[in-house]
Amino acid sequence: MARLKRDVLRRSAVGALFTGRSVSTEAPGASYTYGVDGVFSFYDNLNVNTYVARTETPGRRGDDASYQGQLEYSGDRWGFVVERLGVGANFNPEVGFLRRDDFRRSFGSFRFSPRPRSIAAVRKFLFEGSLDYIADGAGLLETRLQQGIFGIEFENGDRFFAGATDNYEFLKQPFDIHKDVTIPIGGYSFTNARVVYALGQQRSTSGGLTFDRGQFFGGEWTSVGYFRGRVNLSPQVAVEPSLSFNWIELPQGGFTTELVSTRVIYTLTPRMFVAALLQYNSGADSLGTNIRLRWEYQPGSELFVVYTDERDTLTPRFAGLENRAFVVKFNRLFRF
């Protein structure tokens, strides 16, 4: 893997990326990814982000490119984002991952965030609306998400948000969402609402409390959670808990899921830390462990040592091992 980046103009940069895998997972032979990107900043708050990339994979020819163009204005009082993203059916970066393939995404959002002078406890209000539209390569609508958010940022650093979302999802294949519960092929429209209260990062204990309620693929969904939690036990030790509980009722059946995780971070030096994550997922009946060491041995250059394993909680007596990995990653920044 190689990454090149060069600063241009006053606050802009252009770059290039190349990755190669000697043994492709698709067919005999090697696979490659290469692309160029640019970040261009104009005035104080206007930014343009763009990239073009292409892959070469044995047995996958044509429609193997991806691109993105994004225009963003990030002013304090108001802002907007307009974006277009495309991924070809045969775009296959084997060093990396794709959450979705063969799609075209159009996204737009507008934000108005005034600072009231007459309310001492409030630092800023937030009014934001967005539209996310995703179609496949043939133009068939797969996902449409329309969202409205109202927020308050308080002077003490806490934040409150309330929002509503109108969703549309088209399933091309049956979706096994839970044991013995399968959502059939078809298009589904549903709405839901969310309320969030987030404690400020300056507190010794921070994080966000969430409540969600609404429709879900022809049924109903209720969720409560605690996310991005952080408890600072000392200047070197912090614990980051996260909880999510979901109650889902569908025409095909009802179920509940729990996702509980805890991360412990120990900072050895300003450039080195060790983080250990333990996560339980009732939906997958799994218990996962991740231990990571990060060392920035010089500015911009890092060493990562990572151990992960996943265990099946349904095995008798003790959770049985399903997979295990040990990875060492090293990168070096060259300045020229």
Rounded to the nearest angstrom, the distance between the terminal CA atoms is 18 Å
Give the class from helix and strand content and strand pairing. mainly beta
Radius of gyration: 23 Å
- Number of separate helices: 0
Helix content: under 10%
| Number of extended strands | 21
Point out poorly predicted stretches: none
Oligomer: single chain
**String of helices and strands:** EEEEEEEEEEEEEEEEEEEEE
Using the alpha-carbon principal axes, give the shape: globular
Largest sheet: 19 strands, antiparallel
Strand content: over 45%
Mean pLDDT: 93
Give an overview in words.
- By secondary structure, the protein is mostly beta strands.
- 0% of the residues lie in helices and 71% in strands.
- The protein has a 19-stranded antiparallel sheet, with no helix packed on it.
- 4% of the residues are buried.
Summarize this structure briefly:
The protein has 336 residues and is mostly beta strands. The chain contains no helices and 21 strands.
